Amino acid sequence: MFHASCFMGFCLMSTTLYRKYRPQNFSDMIGQGHIVQTLSNAIIHDRIGHAYLFTGPRGTGKTSMARLFAKAVNCPTPKGAEPCMECDVCKNITEGKSLDVFEIDAASNTGVDNIRELRETVKLPPSQAKFKVYIIDEVHMLSTGAFNALLKTLEEPPAHVIFILATTEIHKVPETIISRCQRFDFTRISLENIIKKLAKIAEQEGVEIEKAALEAIAISAEGGMRDAESLLGQVISLEDKKVTAKEVEEILGTTKHKSIEDFTEALIAKDTSSALRLIDALSNDGFDLEVFHKAVLNYLRQLMLVSIDGSLAETFSFELTSEQTKKILDFAKKTKTADVLKILARLSEVQGKIKASFIPQLPIEIAVVEITKGISSKIAPAPAAPSVPQNATPAPVAPYTAPTRSEAPRETASTPVAESPKEAIRSAQQEDTTMENGKAFNLGDVQKIWHEACKQIIQANHSLAALLPLSMPAEVENGFLTIVTKYGFYKDKLNDNTNRLTVESVFGNLLGSRVKLRALTEEESGIKVPERRSSNVPSFGQKAEPQTEKKGSSLLSDAASVLGGKIVE
Ligand SMILES: [Zn+2]
Question: What CATH number was assigned to the domain covering residues 443-538?
Answer without folding.
Answer: 3.30.300.180
